[in-house]
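Table 4 source record.
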Amino acid sequence: MKDLKVISPAKINLNLKILGRRNDGYHNIQTLFQILKFGDEMTFSIDSGNIVTVDAGQEIENNIVLDAAKLLREKTSSATGCHIQIKKKIPIGGGMGGGSSNAATTLLILNRLWRINLSKTELLEMGRQLGADVPIFILGESALAEGIGEKLSPIVTEKQWFLIVNPHISVPTHKIFSHPELTRNSLPSKISTILDGRSDNDCTELVTKLYPEILEALDWLKNHGSPKLTGTGGCVFCSFTSSNKANWVLKGLPKKWSGFVTEGVSLSSVHDTLNNLKIGASPSG
């Protein structure tokens, strides 16, 4: 077949409540993941070389994409290989799930191209082995996440456009979640409160203390709405009811930062691609 090109989507966290630290060191959380129309371009080229190679033009997070392909290869005796080309657009270390999305996309696409045909349940379990945010991209739907992020409940969110501001600060997630000053005793929010934009991100106070440039970006966005930090940052965002309004605000963005406007979607573009692909079978529960 010809090369298969897909958009590996970004996500933002519409809220993030940290409910407590577990005995195993992980944290119980509540967050609403919003899938975005924006993402990295990934091209999959199948070959007969029995080798998986990845080219992203830069170092990827612990080569999680290659890890995903190797994990999937354990499920097949096929001698088929693949070259994966990634054109990165999702800010690295920005709290938008780029590496996790790339890994999930790799599992989903190669599961089909290699005709392994694992179910979505099996792919979700594999995703959990790779990282806490990988399962949301396997699910491919905006969803409420609970537990350590593994309990996912799909939610259809209102049609919104988001202005994402990247202050060019890469925030290590482990640094924030291991920090002694992180808030860890929040109560979960009602879903209606999250959808109304009234549930905050518990990482914000600590992240803005450690990274003043992120605080500056949030303060600038406050002139135009109710901005939030996504994940542990460093990207921040503001929601709008129209793309025109979001793009108007984008035009005034300080030159030292970068930004873009994108639409929130209920279903990942990867799943749209898979639904229209005539190879193999779609993963089901």
